[in-house]
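Its record is quoted verbatim for completeness.
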Amino acid sequence: MAFSAGSLFSAHGHSPGFRGVRQHRIWQKRRSLVALLWMAAILSAVVGAMRREPPFDAVLNQWDEMMAYSALCSLVIGFI
């Protein structure tokens, strides 16, 4: 089977038109944003563990940043 750009979107190989391509690109951008937010949350958790910061301290630290990234990630996943 020959590869064509249209085969990514429909079973018949027809082009989905501007709207289908646009929706696919938006979905890809959201998926990459989710991946970046997850990586930021994991990195914040690793840095917080390496610095041995207490999770619930009086000042903001890496654990609070991790929770913020996780909340943003959940929010973006909710819109996908």
Summary: Residues 30 and 79 are 9 Å apart (CA to CA). The chain has two helices and no strands.
